[in-house]
Amino acid sequence: MVSLALAPAVVDSATAMPLKDPKQQKAEIDREIGSLRAQLDDTSSDLANAYIALRTTQAAMPAAQQRLDQATAALARADAYNDAMAQALQVAQANEARAVEQLARSNAQIQDARTRVANFAAQMYQDQGMGQLSVALSATTPEDFANRIAMTDTVMDVQAQSLDRLATIRAAAVAQEAHLEALRAQVAQAKAAAQAALAKAQAARASAAQAKQKLDGLAAQQAAQSKVLAAKKAAEQKRLVTAQTEQARLQQILVARARAAKLAAAKRAEAARRAAAAARAAGRAAPSTALAAPSSGAFLSAPSDGWISSEFGMRFHPILHYWRLHAGRDYAADCGTPIRAAAPGTIISAGWGGGYGNRILIDHGIQRGVDLVTTYNHMSRFAVRGGHVARGQVIGYVGTTGESTGCHLHFETYEDGVPKDPRRWL
Question: Do 309 and 227 have their domain in common?
Answer without folding.
Answer: no
